[in-house]
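Bug #77: duplicate submission created two jobs. Keeping one. Sequence:
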Amino acid sequence: MPSNGFRKLTEGLSRAQTSILVQLRTGHIALNAYLHRITKADSPTCPSCNQDDETVHHFLFDCPTWRHERWQLSQALGWDSKLVTCVLNSLKGVKAVLKYVGRTGRLKSAER
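Kept job's structure:
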């Protein structure tokens, strides 16, 4: 069973949103670093920028392709937008990061 804190955090989220949150928190998500590790992608490199491995951290904080979307995330969270603990563990952060994921459209194929 999930902890009370996690249950409270996901209380108002849809099943799809909760699934994305769990995947982001565990790193088991349709980003190239993970897909390469399980032999579903030829390379771990980010297809958007081709600069680094496409990890959760790269997707949320570093990829230059999503700079504009990340700016909107920082407007919603302020300095907390730079802390993975705030982004994935607080209600305000989770809502903002789910909007960020939606704006990027990067995980659309994973939702189907």
